[in-house]
Amino acid sequence: MSTAVGRRQTDALCMCAAMRELLLLVLAASAASSRSHSNWCELGCECRGDLRLAVCSRAFFTELPGRVPSATELLDLSHNRIAVIPERSFDKNRKLRVLLLQNNNISVVQDGAFSQLEFLQKLDLSWNRISTLSKGFSVGLAFLRELQLAHNSLSSLDSGSFMHLDSLQKLNLSSNGVHTIQTRSFASMSGLRHLHLDGNRLTSLKSGIFSMLRSLELLNLAGNSINETQVGVFKPLTSMTLLSLANNRLTSIYFKTFLSIHTYSTHILLEGNPWNCDCDLQRVFRKLRSVQRLFLDDYYNLTCGEPAMLRNYRLSQVDAELCIAETVTVLIITVTVVITVLAAMLMGERKRKRKKGRKHWTQQGQLSDESDF
User: Fold this and answer.
1) Per the domain annotation, does 69 fall within a domain?
2) CA dihedral angle for residue 43, residue 44, residue 45, residue 46, rounded to 10 degrees
3) Which of 174, 203, 228, 300 lies in disulfide reach of 150, CB 3.0 to 4.6 Å?
4) Domain residue limits at 242
5) Contact between 104 and 80 (Cβ < 8 Å)
6) Is 265 part of any domain?
7) Are residues 153 and 206 in the same domain?
8) DSSP states of 1-26
9) Is residue 237 part of a domain?
10) What CATH number has the domain bearing residue 113?
């Protein structure tokens, strides 16, 4: 009996020893994994191989990190101090699908910087200092779907800025200093659905700048200085459902400018413009509101900038009186002119009669003098 008990105690001790040995092996493997992790991930980054992501945000990098796992699909480099994106910067990370570079000091993106990123779908370069986009900027980004460039220093867009972005669906250029858009700037982006140009310095919209954007659904032009739109500028936008021209400097619009939009339904925002409230404007808005496919969502918030007597009045409050007032004014002017003409004719007739009377009496006097002889 004692022998059996001893054997059980011995077996238990052996099992405990085996478990301790197994635990030590697990700890050793974990330590080895940790050492391996530190070897292939840049100091300051957190790399998760199982999730295929590398987070290097707020790490005070002044240049791109050199050690990022080649299998990474999401690389977050936001909120650093990176100033330059060199050519072929991501040769070792060709599987990237999302690249976040917002809130850095980037002022230079060299030609071909993203040329190896054939799987990239989202690129965020917002809140940087980029002032120009070279023709080589978009090389290799044929499958990019979303490009964020808001809050940079771009002043103009030309035909080479986005020439390789064939699959782009969303482009955000908000809050730059864009004042010039060349005719074929968006020519390669026939699949673009969302275009944000709000908060820039545009003053006019010329026909042709949106000529290839047949898939565009949202066009945000709010917060510019637009005071002129050519009649056919929106005609190519056959898919547009939302157009914002709020907070610009429009004083008047042409009916045909919006009538040329041939979509099933388009919502238009026009609030915050200094409208010149006259009878012509009232006629335009009356006709626009009668078009069933057009929706002036903020019509009841539109306010007058001119004339001074109507400033800050809502257009909806005075539109019914605008043409009445103009008609009354025209009638007053017409009546005044008619009265003036009639008065002039009457005075002329009186003068003619007086003259005729004097002539008659003069002739009578001459005849009387002749009879005396």
Assistant:
1) yes
2) 100
3) 174
4) 202-343
5) yes
6) yes
7) no
8) -HHHHHHHHHHHHHHHHHHHHHHHHH
9) yes
10) 3.80.10.10
Give me the pLDDT at residue 352, please.
72
**Does the residue 319 lie in any domain?**
yes
Among 125, 143, 158, residue at a domain's last position: 158
pLDDT tens column, 184-211? 899 999 999 999 999 999 999 999 999 9
Q: Which residue type is seen at 332? A: I
CB 104 within 8 A of CB 77: yes
Please write the tens of the pLDDT for every residue from 207-220: 999 999 999 999 99
Please indicate, yes or no, whether residues 322 and 208 belong to a single structural domain of this protein: yes
Residue count of the chain: 373
Question: End of a domain among 158, 189, 212?
Answer: 158
Residues 249, 255, 261, 264, CA torsion sign: positive
State whether 133 and 213 are in the same domain.
no
Q: Which residues fall within 8 angstroms of residue 305, CB to CB, at 6 or more apart?
A: 251, 273, 274, 275, 276, 277, 311
The single residue listed with the structure tokens 């907070």 is: 247
Contact 54, 77 (CB under 8 A): no
> Encoding tokens for residue 66?
């050199």
Q: Give the residue from 208, 211, 204 showing the smallest Cα distance to 227.
A: 204
Please state the domain count of the chain. Answer: 2
Look up residue 291 and give its DSSP letter.
-
Q: Which residue has tokens 């005719």?
A: 183
221: nearest Cα among 258, 269, 261, 166: 269
Q: How far is CA 237 from the centre of its chain?
A: 14
Q: Which residues pair with 314 in a beta bridge?
A: 303
Which residue is associated with the tokens 């987070």? 55
pLDDT digits (tens, 9 = 90+) for 279-333: 999 999 999 999 999 999 999 999 999 999 999 999 988 876 677 655 545 455 6
Judgement on whether residues 207 and 123 belong to the same structural domain of the protein: no
Question: Mean pLDDT score of the chain, rounded to an integer?
Answer: 85
Residues 6+ apart with CB under 8 A from 371: none
